[in-house]
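FW: tagging you since you asked about this chain on Friday. Here's the raw sequence from the shared folder, copied in full. Didn't touch anything.
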Amino acid sequence: MDGESSLKLPLIDFSNLESGGPKWELAKAQVKEALEEFGCFEASFDKVPIEVRKGLFEALEELFNLPLETKLRNVSQKPFHGYVGQYPMAPLFESMGVDDSTIPQKVQDFTNILWPQGNPTFRVMMSGEEVRYSAGLFSIPKAGYIVKAPEELVDEQHPLLFNPFDHVQFLQFYYTEAGQKAQSALKTFCGAT
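HL: got it, structure written out here
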């Protein structure tokens, strides 16, 4: 069997989970395995109504259809925050990070940057090939939090591969000339020798 054709992103169902229950334990094991093997997974959660999902993707389409000069107003000192796009190595990728998105005033500030005269309601009709959107929701450690392997997972048969590191400092290094030239920016930044 061709290795490429057998590669499939894990799908994990988070519906109807109760902390400590058998489905909870199964989901925990699936998450651990998916992150160890793939570094990511697709989450399924049936409690988000289809109308909410549809509304999210319609709003994303409207957001990313803004002119480039408007999107470029969303800047951040944090790597991968603000507007990210226009990379030759990933020409179809765009991202719009919002700093402190759990604080309502920060979300309002973001909105005011992109729509200083208010957000007019409009929809763009598209023709030709259908555009596909996806929403990635990420959790990123706070600055100063040290990412490290649990001590119980490191021994002589499983040596430490990376020294403990601050995730924000790594992202800052990634965008330096040395980080961009490195075959593996993570190994260059904090690889164990």
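FW: Confidence is low (pLDDT under 50) at residues 1-5, 122-127.
HL: agreed, and The helical segments are 3-6, 22-37, 50-64, 68-71, 104-114, 167-174, 177-181, 185-190.
FW: great, closing this out.
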